[in-house]
Amino acid sequence: MQGLLNETAGLLAFVRTVQAGSFSAAAKSLGTTPSFVSKSISRLERLLGATLFRRSTRLLAMTPEGEAFYAKIAPLLHDIESAADVVRSHREPAGHLRVSMPTELGRMILEHIVEEFMPRYPAISLDIGMTDRAVDVLRENYDVVFRVGGTAQDGLMCRTLAHLDMVIVASPSFLDRHGKIDSVDRLEELPFVRYATSGRPYPVPLPDGRELRPKGRLDLDSATAIRDAAVAGVGAAYLIKPIVEADIDGGLLVELLPQMALQTVPLQALHASGRMPSFRQQLFTDFVASVMAKSGA
């Protein structure tokens, strides 16, 4: 459709509006006005003969036609925007990367990113979001997302970078109150600071295939918060070993049943299926993998 190829402004305005959530946010990212974005999308809708958004004073939501069109057009625009990487890969790597990673992982490797990656690749700029929330890679327009554990989101390509050791820990003050922990049965009696999302606490997989479903009065969705609560003696905690190793070495936390080999969990890099990773994306992912390998993960 030749007319569609002439509607670059409308295509960009549509995709950015979906990703940003409003005409005004899309306009800001494109360096234009909300009026221009709205008019560009209206022109695109007339060309397509379909309504892409349901508009009201409080709501901007995609129609089913808009959902289907976005699923087709967003990957194409991403590939066009990253096409320059084919040329840049033969010169200095350059461009922008939008990244998401778990909070504690980010804290672990941020120093390496700032002191090693950024000086090595001065033409690459980074937007790094640190959250334990399972972000929507496609809708929130991330180039690459690092996630601990498996992923259930469709339309994603996955690369496993490392297998992370897990530990169950508690503070010395907590153990003073609850006594020696020498069996799984004793673990099941303990209150935990539990990792939970959407009101659902996660179980602790045991080496024999069983799942420990910990009891507890405090549920959190952040490894950082769980670690802080464990150090304060609120409860035992099931955490990635690299983020609490310093606490264990310093005596702030004690590893429970260290002879029990807990299952490792994967650290994965995710990006949209059907898109070739950009050169800068590959460089950054390889860098994270190398940092984790050096840390013993």
Automatic annotation (TrEMBL):
InterPro entries: LysR-type_TF_proteobact-type, LysR_HTH_N, LysR_subst-bd, WH-like_DNA-bd_sf, WH_DNA-bd_sf. Pfam families: HTH_1, LysR_substrate. CDD domains: PBP2_CrgA_like. Signal peptide: none annotated. SUPFAM superfamilies: Periplasmic binding protein-like II, Winged helix' DNA-binding domain. Residues 6-63 form the HTH lysR-type domain. Keywords: DNA-binding, Transcription, Transcription regulation. Belongs to the LysR transcriptional regulatory family. This is LysR family transcriptional regulator. It comes from Rhizobium mayense.
